[in-house]
């Protein structure tokens, strides 16, 4: 009969190929029938009871649990001190919940804000579950990336036509009164995520305080210059265009669709999803109001 011998001075196993080390473990009394594949197995891990199956415990055959509960592996028939029909393992019972879930699911699924990854890594090392150790390493490597928090984003835009009158010179002494319609756009962006709000300002080239407001929102007003309106008259009326994009790729925002398309791009880049469209959900880029949420 093969005997499990502890490795001096070590709480973990360096190899499972020859004689796997088994922690303090008390199997059921000899008269009870040994566990079978498909049937339930009860473990007492540090005083916490867990029920599972042999298929789950041996999901990773090279792990310590895989060696302990492998079919045909002899286990010393020590009686449980409580006399109950369960196997006792002297390890952290709370952390074993995540060990067992990983064996069941094959992936690491920790609650948000979990702060005991160091303990879980030590337990995974003890049980010699290498895939879990790899998953924990990936998790710790990604901890430097901030997790998006819940936020709200509103974008409202309104267009209003304005009839502009101006004198157009037709000859040396000939001036003619002309009129042209100028479409003026006013937009308000409200966002509770300062990083996204800053990206919105950068996207629309808002740098001066006369076009931006403090707090979680800012307003924009622009009017594309009609071809019939002389540039000097356009400037005299105090009108200004709206540009978007970075250096070398600046393009003018000439209407509601162009503005809302840029808002949509920035919102999606920051993890928001579209929640509502007003007034017509079927006409996204010609709407008056878009609402985004991020959970």
From TrEMBL:
Gene Ontology cellular component annotations, sorted alphabetically: cytoplasm
Entries under Gene3D superfamilies matching the protein: Potassium Channel Kv1.1, Chain A
UniProtKB keywords: Cell cycle, Developmental protein, Growth regulation, Transferase, Ubl conjugation pathway
Cross-referenced Pfam families: BTB_2, KCTD11_21_C
Database matches in SUPFAM superfamilies: POZ domain
GO biological process, one term: neuroblast differentiation
Family annotation (SMART domains): BTB
Domain BTB stretches: 39-144
InterPro entries, per the entry: BTB/POZ_dom (IPR000210), KCTD11/21_C (IPR045763), SKP1/BTB/POZ_sf (IPR011333), T1-type_BTB (IPR003131)
GO molecular function terms listed in the Swiss-Prot or TrEMBL record: identical protein binding; transferase activity
Listed pathway(s): Protein modification; protein ubiquitination
UniProt key word Cell cycle: yes
Subunit composition and interactions: Homopentamer. Interacts with KCTD6 and KCTD21; KCTD11 and KCTD6 or KCTD21 may associate in pentameric assemblies. Component of the BCR(KCTD11) E3 ubiquitin ligase complex, at least composed of CUL3 and KCTD11 and RBX1. Interacts (via BTB domain) with CUL3; initially a 4:4 stoichiometry has been reported, however, electron microscopy revealed pentameric states of the BTB domain.
Name this protein carries in UniProt: BTB/POZ domain-containing protein KCTD11
Organism of derivation: Vulpes vulpes
Lineage: Eukaryota, Metazoa, Chordata, Craniata, Vertebrata
């Amino acid at each position: 009969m093969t005997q499990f011998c502890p490795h001096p001075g070590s709480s973990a196993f360096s190899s499972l190929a020859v004689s796997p080390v088994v922690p303090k473990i008390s199997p059921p009394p000899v008269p009870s029938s040994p566990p079978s594949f498909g049937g339930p197995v009860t473990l007492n891990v540090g005083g916490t009871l867990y029920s599972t199956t042999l298929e789950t415990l041996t999901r990773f055959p090279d792990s310590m649990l895989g060696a302990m509960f492998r079919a045909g592996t002899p286990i010393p028939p020590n009686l449980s001190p409580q006399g109950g029909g369960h196997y006792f393992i002297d390890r952290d019972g709370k952390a074993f919940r995540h060990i067992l879930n990983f064996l069941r699911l094959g992936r690491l699924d920790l609650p948000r804000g979990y702060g005991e990854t160091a303990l879980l890594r030590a337990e995974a090392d003890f049980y010699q579950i290498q895939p879990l150790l790899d998953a924990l390493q990936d998790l710790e490597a990604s901890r430097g990336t901030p997790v998006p928090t819940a936020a709200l984003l509103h974008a409202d835009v309104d267009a209003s036509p304005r009839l502009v009158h101006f004198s157009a010179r037709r000859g040396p002494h000939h001036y003619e009164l002309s009129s042209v319609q100028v479409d003026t756009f006013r937009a308000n962006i409200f966002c509770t995520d300062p990083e996204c709000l800053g990206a919105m300002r950068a996207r629309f080239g808002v740098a001066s305080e006369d076009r931006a407001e403090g707090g979680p929102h800012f307003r924009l007003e622009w009017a594309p210059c009609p071809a019939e309106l002389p540039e000097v008259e356009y400037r005299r009326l105090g009108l200004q265009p709206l540009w978007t994009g970075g250096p070398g790729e600046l393009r003018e925002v000439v209407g509601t669709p162009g503005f809302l398309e840029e808002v949509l791009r920035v919102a999606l880049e920051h993890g928001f999803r579209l929640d509502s469209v007003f007034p017509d959900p079927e006409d996204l880029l010609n709407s008056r109001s878009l609402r985004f949420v991020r959970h």
